[in-house]
Specification:
Elements (H helix, E strand, L loop, with lengths): L13 H14 L4 E4 L6 H6 L3 E4 L8 H4 L9 H11 L17 E5 L3 H10 L5 E4 L10 H20 L5 H24 L9 H11 L4 H17 L13 E6 L8 H8 L3 E6 L19 H9 L11 H13 L4 E7 L3 H17 L3 E6 L6 H15 L1
Parallel strand pairs: 1-2, 1-3, 3-4, 5-6, 5-7, 7-8
The structure holds Double cubane cluster.
The site of Double cubane cluster has 20 residues, from helix 4, helix 5 and helix 13.
Amino acid sequence: MLSPASDPDLFADAYPARIAALAEEKQAGTKIVGTLCLYVPDEIIYAAGADRVILCGGSNALIPAADEYLPRSLCPLIRSSFGAIVTRDDPETGACPHVPLVDLVVGETTCDGKKKMFELLTDLVPTYVIDLPQKPDTPGALLYFTGELQKFRTMMEELTGNQVTDERLWKEIRDANRTRRLLMRLFSLRRQNPPPIEGVAVIRMMQRQFQLHPREFRRRLEALVTGLEAQQPAGQEKAARRPRILFSGCPVTAGNQKVPEIIEERGGVIVAEESCTGTRSFWHLVDENEERDPLTALAERYLQIPCACMTPNDRRIEHIIELVRQFSIDGVVYATLQNCHGYNTERHRVQQALRAAGVPMLAIETDYGDADREQIGVRVDAFLEMIQ
Ligand code: BJ8
């Protein structure tokens, strides 16, 4: 089984090369866009001839710089992301070499904390915000979001000086769907018992999805998936069977794998992640029927992402139950960040649905610090023992 111990970070070596490539691209005039959410369609950014990096911060060290501007009652993801931007030109504290390369931050109206953070960002860096309808199933939501994507398309044309033609959009849609299908194949392999790869290794790879150029990510992913598919299933291990865990909740940003690490160090194995560093990033494809308007096809797909900022969010509950069945889950670890009201409040409905399905759940609310590592470990031990 591929584990972080045997292969600490499957795509780590790609990051330094990526920074060098971004710097060269920027020198040559390519615009670099920074995003913080799955709802911003990469397809439009790449169709405009720009490049994209993720700005979601996972480092605790960047939070103090943000606390000069933001209340401590925001989630660590927002504070860390903001900290990376305010320290972008400081060689002492600036920890993310890709942040100073960004020409435009593209935000989105998801949770309140992010929305207000983007307002402060406009004083620091050029920032554009896409308005996301949060009742995705109401009549008019699709039309409204398609209009927002049209405005974003125009914005990208102005930024880059390139026309975002339908032809370019369809090419990017096809390419992004190829990556989604590869991820689907990777996750299908994890239905095996034991799975051929551990969860922490997958999570670290999924984090790279948002840092690397999609072409490079897809090339490496394809090699990984075909390699794993070529392996014979290991069959039941002689050693004790490890409890199969569904990890569900807030995104696991780079630098913040504490909870997944604890689960696997203590004997569980994560076989699927219901998060933005998991199924939410690839579960739905964009319709490739080129007789349609590509922006409508994109809007349709992106509105299906079941983030807790949506209401009602039955789609997410149904997806969790679907994953529990497909991946033969023994227990769900529902891991959230402190002060993330959406995911923390939605916990109750997830718990109810899992109880009705007879699946145990452990809820963990944490931050980016290490102070609660031992305490979480004790709770994970008890949970794994209970479900074994
Ligand atoms: S699609 S999860 S990336 S919004 S953890 S900042 S929700 S208070 S990151 Fe997210 Fe897009 Fe949704 Fe995914 Fe707010 Fe919660 Fe913080 Fe969050």
